[in-house]
Amino acid sequence: MNTPPDPVAIAESAQALAEANRWLAGRSAEQRVAWALETLSGAHALSSSFGAQAAVSLHLLTQQKPDIPVILIDTGHLFPETHRFVEILRDRFDLNLHVYAPHAGHAWPDARVQRLRERGAEAIAQYNRAHKVEPMQRALTELGVSTWIAGLRRSQSSTRARIDFLELRDGRWKLHPLADWNDRDVHQYLTRHGLPYHPLWHEGYVSIGDMHSTRRWEPGLREEDLRFFGLRRECGLHFDEEAGKAA
């Protein structure tokens, strides 16, 4: 397939969507972003956790659309270093940043959050729904987002190993322009453009979320073991582990 995909056709046919993903597989991340911005109608937005390698997606998108809305979900439990990283990258890229937080009435008190590990996987899922999933869905709705762009990569975990470049979910496009990148690709991009890792990267944190549920890498651990006490990998923003499918 050499002709760029037609969004009308791929919205109506699973086969056309599969063909579009094969076409995107033959393009660079920059070309995937350019195609999406030019072809997929409606409002576009990039979500970022401002995690270890977040500068890649932020640079990639703002090079082509400087004013693209960037959505950050502030759970209320991010590392101080993450907040500093947000300010560094916001100033560097002049980000059109939109910060969303859990509703005050639904946010968990600190004492309850600190007991998450002992309460197990279901409690973690409940916390994530209140502090991450609901704020993200609210952000996408309020900003009128038609195309949601995220920096997920297949190499990050077993749950992400089969993600497509392009998905159609709940009437909204979801683009993963870095889906086929590995850590070396990321490092080379950061180096080539003089971009920073998250400050905690240099202290052994390779997957960075909330303070209470993130741990340093140690020999023998996979990246997916470093979040949520090893009880879960996904927070529910992008993938529902219990349902075994994209969220």
What does this structure look like?
By secondary structure, this protein is of the alpha/beta class. The chain has a single domain, classed as HUPs (Rossmann fold), CATH 3.40.50.620. The protein is 38% helix and 13% strand. The strands form 2 sheets. Strands 3-2-1-4-6-5 form a 6-stranded mixed β-sheet. Strands 7-8 form a two-stranded antiparallel ribbon.
Distance between the termini: 29 Å
Radius of gyration: 18 Å
SS elements, strand count: 8
Instruction: Give the percentage of residues in beta strands.
Output: 5-15%
The total number of structural domains is: 1
Question: Share of helix among residues?
Answer: 25-40%
The backbone outline, from C-alpha atoms, is globular
Oligomeric category: single chain
* Adjacency order of strands in the biggest sheet: 3-2-1-4-6-5
Q: Please, how many helices? A: 9
Please provide the ordered H/E string of secondary-structure elements: HHHEHEHEHHHEEEHEE
What is the top-level CATH class?
Alpha Beta
Mean pLDDT: 86
Largest sheet composition: 6 strands, mixed
Q: Write down the CATH topology.
A: Rossmann fold
CATH architecture: 3-Layer(aba) Sandwich
Low-confidence stretches: 241-247
Specify the structural class: alpha/beta
CATH superfamily: HUPs
